[in-house]
User: Which sequence fits this backbone?
């Protein structure tokens, strides 16, 4: 058969050649060892936490090697696509400070010289390569209908064929003559373009996965579809063309693609392209609440599978990134200890330190990491972040919180500029409840009084305190004042002395301050009470002391 004639029949309008593309997309000029990575999601309008994992890996691997990372949108599967499925993905990356060097930057926008970075706009590239494969006899049109393909599957079942798919004797269209093809085309029959596999089912290929080491698999013998009947490529073919012409050095992708590698290597070789390095990353897992078993984080069952969950809850991006890096790279924690103040994005990411088995995503651990991260933040920074979070996710609270920025910042600063700041907050959606007593009168529950303090004692404590309370007193004077009330009330001013002789007292000064704390805040545990009272001011404190006394 005349392959050149066939190629012209199938692609009459394609004049662009792979050589033209080599010129248009030349090898990148990068320093020795620089890695070119890509993150390639479908525009589903949803960014899975596993996607953030992958993208973070891409960006850090490129950055650590002075290379390039880019975002490519893989929109060849129309079933998985939604109208603007790109913005949510970009928004997810923006929220976590994950920045690619090149690629899609928004719905309809992109940067970089190796574009377009959206597959549906790259059809001219796939067709140029496809035409060349036909010219070289490495691809052929297949006119099999859906019914014929079903019949083929059934036949393979009956035969008990070990390998299923379009290959060898089952590949009817593999040997069509040019005349038959011409006839079919003239009859307007729809066709897909198939890869003419040269694989041998008795042979195996080996390749190196940078995480998993040497892998051996049977050669591919399937005549995979390269172009669908609408001319759009399959994932497999698009991957090969794109990663070649975008000059990707490292294909980092989910482990679900591992079994496709023989196919991809065969295609890279058929096209005459260098096979990139492969890195198949482990799935993100969780412990199932009900069964206790490890399972994949599921879009359907687990709200925390979506990156947007962490934005809505108000986890600081540094905390999420920090936690992901502890999961992703076994040497991150050592690096962090040696570089406590460094930006996580400067971590020298090492692919070899990635685990091959699924990593367990644990919300409680993230919460701990986040408390730590927030404890090191400055109050004005927290104020800005809470305000930004509230504007989007708690508009009513936004009004309250931002009405007096200096006040809100000051309350966030209590016990912050100290050697061991408190670790109360893990995410911004906890702030409204955490700070509630600063913005509204607290509800007082007398059951929260310390065990040693009766309601009558509590009343007596507040009655004694009200007339002597002085908002101008500093911490020491404030505490000395509470101590001074103790003897008359039957409490011991010194905790130590109380412990030596507990029978002699009702309680100690700590119990007295707990009563004041409960009256002023409704809580048994707060940051420094003296500062809280200074910020609330005399009027509000006195009102609260009186109101609580009436409840006790
Ligand atoms: N578009 C593919 C996916 O969404 C990407 C696989 C790859 O990174 O090569 O799974």
Assistant:
């Amino acid at each position: 058969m005349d392959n050149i004639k066939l190629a012209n029949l199938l692609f009459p309008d394609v004049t662009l050649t792979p050589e033209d593309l080599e010129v248009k997309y030349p090898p990148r000029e990068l320093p020795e060892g620089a890695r070119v990575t890509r993150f390639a999601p479908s525009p589903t309008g949803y960014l899975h936490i596993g996607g953030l994992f992958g993208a973070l890996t891409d960006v850090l691997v490129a950055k650590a090697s002075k290379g390039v990372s880019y975002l490519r949108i893989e929109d060849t599967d129309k079933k998985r696509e939604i109208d603007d499925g790109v913005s949510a993905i970009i928004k997810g990356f923006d929220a976590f400070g994950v920045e690619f060097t090149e690629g899609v930057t928004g719905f309809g926008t992109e940067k970089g010289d190796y574009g377009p970075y959206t597959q549906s706009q790259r059809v001219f590239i796939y067709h140029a390569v496809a035409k060349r494969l036909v010219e070289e006899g490495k691809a052929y049109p297949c006119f099999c209908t859906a019914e014929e393909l079903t019949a083929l599957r059934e036949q393979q079942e009956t035969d008990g064929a070990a390998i299923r798919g379009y290959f060898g004797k089952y590949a009817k269209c593999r040997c069509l003559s040019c005349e038959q093809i011409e006839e079919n085309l003239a009859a307007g029959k729809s066709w897909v373009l198939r890869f003419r596999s040269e694989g041998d089912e008795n042979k195996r290929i080996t390749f190196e996965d940078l995480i998993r080491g040497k892998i051996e698999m049977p050669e591919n013998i399937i005549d995979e579809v390269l172009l669908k009947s609408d001319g759009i490529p399959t994932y497999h073919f698009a991957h090969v063309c794109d990663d070649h012409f975008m000059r990707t050095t490292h294909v980092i992708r989910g482990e679900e693609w591992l079994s496709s590698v023989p196919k991809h290597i065969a295609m890279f070789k058929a096209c005459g392209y260098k096979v990139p390095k492969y890195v198949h990353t482990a799935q993100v897992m969780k412990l199932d609440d009900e069964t206790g078993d490890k399972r994949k984080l599921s879009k359907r069952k687990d709200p925390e599978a979506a990156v947007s969950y962490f934005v809505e809850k108000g986890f600081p991006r540094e905390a999420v990134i920090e936690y992901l890096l502890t999961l992703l790279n076994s040497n991150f924690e050592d690096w962090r200890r040696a570089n406590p103040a460094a930006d996580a994005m400067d971590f020298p990411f090492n692919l070899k330190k990635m685990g091959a088995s699924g990593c367990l995503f644990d919300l409680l651990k993230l919460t701990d990491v986040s408390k730590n991260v927030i404890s090191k933040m400055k109050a004005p920074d927290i104020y800005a972040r809470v305000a930004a979070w509230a504007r989007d996710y708690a508009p009513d609270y936004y009004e309250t919180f931002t009405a007096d920025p200096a006040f809100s910042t000051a309350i966030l600063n209590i016990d912050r500029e100290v050697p061991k700041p408190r670790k109360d907050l893990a995410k911004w959606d906890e702030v409204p409840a955490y700070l509630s007593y600063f913005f509204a009168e607290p509800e007082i529950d007398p059951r929260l009084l310390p065990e040693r303090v009766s309601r009558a004692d509590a009343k007596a404590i507040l009655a004694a305190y009200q007339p002597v309370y002085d908002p101008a007193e500093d911490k020491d004077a404030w505490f000395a004042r509470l101590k001074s009330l103790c003897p008359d009330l039957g409490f011991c001013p010194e905790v130590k002395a109380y412990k030596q002789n507990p029978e002699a007292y009702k309680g100690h000064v700590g119990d007295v301050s707990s009563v004041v704390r409960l009256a002023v805040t409704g809580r048994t545990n707060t940051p420094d009470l003296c500062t809280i009272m200074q910020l609330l001011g005399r009027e509000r404190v006195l009102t609260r002391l009186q109101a609580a006394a009436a409840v006790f």
